């Protein structure tokens, strides 16, 4: 039976690279991202369903869940960096932090809630993509890191509450992506890992289905 995965932030970077790995293995894919053009090109390449939109929009989350009534894997990869240049916490605008929480914490939880019935039925799995900024005291990364720390704890509790579903919160390490370039500059980002290599390790994780828990792909 063909398995189905729903991947957020799938138009580029790690999300697109993982989608390519899963498509190569015969998975059915439902992909979402805010950029409709890039997403539709990715979906056309992979024979996937593209549903562009913002994961912080509850109506969009409902559309995604309806598009995957049978689901084996949810990948919460979509994320926002927040204010750039990265400010110290003393200067972090509260409104911007609330918006960051909506995208990086509330949206993944909302999508988990919407898809849990299907994931319970299939004995499926959830991947929540986090960061070492969740635990490291990196100057300027306090706002983003706080949201990823919250996502890690949500994942930790979800794993305890949903023993029939695998839950992995995954630190992929630094990758050469637009998000990293926005934070540290294009030159430094260019020395980071290729998202395709990280996606290969993430695909191996999904295939092996270890017990729920935190995973570092560094």
Automatic annotation (TrEMBL):
Keyword annotations: Oxidoreductase
Molecular function via GO: oxidoreductase activity
The keyword Oxidoreductase belongs to this UniProt entry's keyword annotation: yes
Pfam families documented for this protein: adh_short
Family annotation (InterPro entries): NAD(P)-bd_dom_sf, Sc_DH/Rdtase_CS, SDR_fam
GO cellular component: membrane
Family: Belongs to the short-chain dehydrogenases/reductases (SDR) family.
PANTHER family linked: DEHYDROGENASE/REDUCTASE SDR FAMILY MEMBER 7B, DEHYDROGENASE_REDUCTASE SDR FAMILY MEMBER 7B
Protein name in UniProt: SDR family oxidoreductase
Source organism: Nonomuraea terrae
Organism classification: Bacteria, Bacillati, Actinomycetota, Actinomycetes, Streptosporangiales
